[in-house]
């Protein structure tokens, strides 16, 4: 059985990264909208179909095995013991970033629960080894059963016309999820937020905040979560806040192309697929990512917040060292463990 699982995981990890179709006019989790060209979209849709078929066929081999509890204690990649070997729960799984998180779990052979208000996963990654559950973050009563027994929770939900206002979802809804995670000692809560969220004078903040004051609500939610975990003081559960730059529908470039930062002074562009990879990989290294907040973007697109909006719209890249702005807190690495190493904690 172990050999079968190993072979299947290798097959899954060789699949091409999925590119989701561009959806215009929808507020997705922590988005600075960037849209691909139509020709690129057609090519990406073709590759995504191939990848979907590949993942669905391969994952069938382990779909009957994924959700049986392990008799052995579970450990994170950094050696930290975690409370169970349960699934990763993705909240907001039908959104574009949330769906990529489901796909990232599939790629790694990690059992995943895709939650949504309706309780049916409608994303692009098939359902053969994906369980669906109801979870409405505006209704605290639906959260506990959705996250029960999980190894980690990914909060990829955000305001929408159907799902609730920024206040109800990005702020109070996030707090509801954090309180449930702490109560159940879920090892890690990973939150997809937004770059520039602490800089109200930046062009990015001003533009995105037009949509129901979403940036104001995001930072309120972030701050409340940090306060909850600081007060809790337990070493059994932690959190991580990830602040992406301008989200694209491009194929993920991989960890070696990414840059992390702290202090919310620099941003750029990043594929949703790479954000999803950061979310899932962060759960493997709780000693490195726990109680941290960081920004993420493609390393060759990093710009100061005052100019990053125009740079993203023009799809510009840094072509010389003179164009590179350095904050002093950049983190890069050839592996996720390397890129997470050295992140400053939000509190001690």
TrEMBL record:
Q: Where is the NAD(P)-binding domain?
A: 92-284
Q: Any idea which UniProt keywords this protein has? A: Signal
User: What name has this protein been given in UniProt?
Assistant: NAD(P)-binding domain-containing protein
Which organism is this protein's natural source?
Chaetoceros tenuissimus
Top-level taxon: Eukaryota
**Pfam families per the UniProt record, alphabetical:** NAD_binding_10
Write down the InterPro entries for this protein, in alphabetical order.
NAD(P)-bd_dom, NAD(P)-bd_dom_sf
- Tell me which positions the record assigns to the signal sequence: 1-17
Q: Is Signal found in the keyword set?
A: yes
